[in-house]
Design brief:
This protein is of the alpha/beta class. The protein has 3 helices and 8 strands; from the N terminus they run E-H-E-E-E-E-H-E-E-E-H. A hairpin with a 3-residue loop joins strand 6 and strand 7.
């Protein structure tokens, strides 16, 4: 099984990268750590915490989505509801709430979910966002719990991976056959493009 350390990045879409930068970098305080692009296309990364990012593609014609309450049932094609960012303490939650409200954006009251306290808002693209602070003594990662009143039989199998449910790897790729192909982003490290922050 792979060793996961978190989400490297979530990739979202925007039609207005400048408004996106103003919100994520300047209001929320997430550093803009990488930017790729050419006319008609941009891909920028904001640092949530070391090793964890939220990224945005900017394409012409992308429009903000309609704001929809977090967690409300939806119909039709749906792949995403909202993203929640963990914050270190209650003071961080209140600081964010005050900053978002002062910026004239809607932000919820602080909500007690038992194991987390949260606030909810939307970014300029209509993306539903949540900020959550753990209630340490109630953190279900210490002792997982399932209180769904009608869990499926697969859910009842428990919190950990169940062996034998997927085909086993018959032939692992040997080291001498592990080829890595070049992709977009190499220009961040190759020096082939001007770095506007280091060489203005």
């Amino acid at each position: 099984m792979a060793n996961y350390y978190g989400i490297h990045h979530l990739a979202m879409a925007t039609g207005d990268m400048d408004a996106t930068i103003r919100f994520w970098r300047d209001l929320l305080g997430m550093r803009l750590v990488a930017g790729l692009g050419k006319p008609g296309y941009r891909h920028y990364f904001f640092e949530i915490s070391p090793g964890h990012h939220i990224a945005f593609f900017e394409w012409p014609g992308v429009e903000p989505v309609s704001e929809r309450d977090h967690g409300q049932p939806a119909t039709g094609p749906v792949v995403f509801d909202h993203v929640s960012f963990g914050v270190g303490c209650e003071d961080d939650l209140w600081d964010l709430r005050d900053r978002i409200e002062a910026a004239g954006s809607w932000v919820s009251e602080v909500i007690d979910h038992g194991f987390i306290h949260s606030i909810y808002s939307f970014d300029p693209n209509g993306i539903p966002i949540e900020f959550s602070c753990r209630v340490e003594e109630e953190d279900p990662t210490h002792i997982p719990r399932m209180v769904d009143s009608s869990p499926s039989s697969v859910t009842r199998e428990g919190p950990g991976p169940v062996p034998g449910k997927w085909p086993a790897v018959v032939r692992p790729t040997p080291p001498e056959e592990r080829e890595i192909f070049p992709g977009e982003g190499r220009e961040l490290v190759s020096g082939q493009r001007k770095d506007w922050w280091r060489n203005p």
